[in-house]
Amino acid sequence: MNGRVLNETWSVGRIDELLAGIRTEEGTYCPESSVLADDWEWLPGSARTSRTGVYLISGPAMQLAIVPPFAPAPPYTDWKADLRRTLSEPRRIGVVLLRLGYFAVGVVNNGAVEVARGGSRYVHGRHRAGGQSQRRWERNRDQWIEALFDRACSAWQESCGPLAGRLDHLALGGDRIVLGRFLVHCPALARLRDREIARRVPVDRPRSDAIEQARRAIWSSVVHRISA
Description:
By secondary structure, the protein is of the alpha+beta class. The chain has two domains: 4-89 and 220-227, no CATH class; 92-219, eRF1 domain 2 (Nucleotidyltransferase, domain 5). Helices cover 34% and strands 27% of the residues. The protein has helices spanning 12-20, 45-48, 79-88, 131-160, 176-185, 187-190, 210-219, and strands at 4-10, 27-30, 54-59, 62-67, 92-99, 102-109, 112-120, 169-174, 221-227. The strands form two sheets. Strands 1-9-4-3-2 form a five-stranded antiparallel beta sheet. A four-stranded mixed beta sheet has the order 7-6-5-8, sandwiched between helices. The longest helix is centred in the middle third of the chain and has 30 residues, at 131-160.
């Protein structure tokens, strides 16, 4: 099948619309690390190695792959029912969004925002001088970052901490290196790393309203398809 490869993000509603018009025999679910047939060689590596697996759909005029946000539970009996159940089953998810200068933390419960809190802390991004001035700026910058981490960790513990024991997943968004440092800094969150969702939540400037945007992104699926 020739055509242009499209990489898109689809909402739960759009996935439901797609499934309504597809026969069961046109699709299959492939768990993580499955060996895919040669006619799926066009799929990007992120789909082939996804920790949540991938749904492959082939029809007379369609070749499409769905990478779900969560992995379906075995046994994989009816791929359409499995996908619908995976996208609709109740989940409570903690959310941490962090970039230097801004943070947002919250809890999303069954697709609705349950808790949301955001804040900021000045962190100067650049310094071009050298010598002692450079070293003094580096020390100050470390202090600014520590202050941001302190505020974000306190916000998590105060607003989301009481729900931590009931979280099914932890979703992270923002700068990967900054998040790594923050999770070391905040033991209350470090204890939840085993529940971390593989996919990062896209976010530009984290604020409390970013939790609602994160909610939509967390439940969305990544779709790869060939357009004629």
